[in-house]
Amino acid sequence: MLFGKHWKSHHKMKIVIDENAGPCPGVKRAIRLAEKNLMRSSPLYALGPIIHNKPELERLSKKGLDILDQAEIENGDNLEKIYHKNLFIRSHGISPQLERRLEENHAQLIDATCGKVKRVQKVIQNYYRKGYQIVIAGKKGHPEVVGLLGYCDNNGIVISDTAEMSRIDPLKKTLLVSQTTLSKTKFNEIREKLLTLIENPVINDTICKHINGRHEQLAQFANSVDVLLLIGGKESSNTGVLFDICKKENPDSYRIESPAEIEKKWFHTDDLVGITGSASTPLWQLEAVSTFLKSSL
Fold first, then answer.
1. Is 93 found in the same domain as 66?
2. 278-289: per-residue pLDDT in tens?
3. Who contacts 131 (Cβ-Cβ below 8 Å, separation ≥6)?
4. Based on the structure, what is the number of domains in the chain?
5. Known catalytic membership, residue 144
6. Per the residue annotation, which of 56, 99, 144, 257 is the catalytic one?
């Protein structure tokens, strides 16, 4: 049930927007690059959604952004779609194998791979060449992880949970890295378990410092309000991680993608309502939720 007229006159709710919210630097850069290239020439073709945020994608698609299915191109299907096209590589990055395929099809690449992701790619490539077993702490099938695997010829082992670690060969020299948006807690659990399995593994904590610092800020923010609204895409891995943090700190936390999902029963008179977002949520969406709440008072 959405807000109704009767609620309007009774509420004295206070609203605060999280001052540390807003897209991470990698996502900001990707959106800026997309907009800059859309101004020059449209359409611009992106390999998969450049941000896991539906309203922002709709805004960019109106400017001429066309999203292709990355898996389809990786499988070698419908390659005519990319032939001589302006092709946008999102912040998650892609595998070197896919990059070669795109270049062979004369695609003009606009590379928005996040610098933090590029660093992980290089670390993996370097240790794989030295004969190391590559273990990636992260989410299977996540576009960043799919790209990272390409830097070890898809021979890496992706671990999302300590229960999956039996696939690791304890006799091989091993490198452990992380998907940049993984929660620190999850990475530490995997690292501790790995240390009991393997002697002297090389451990490289490649979690983005911006994301990690955001976790601490968000826990404090969730604690400081009565009700918390986290705005983020349904497909966003980062939003899921942040929501777990919010829920742990404040049980009255709700994850939404747009104001249309807000329900009256979540609130009481005189609540202090906090509005925040994930690394893929532009500030205009937080403002839209705030405006909606104020107009419904």
1. yes
2. 888 999 999 999
3. 173
4. 3
5. yes
6. 144
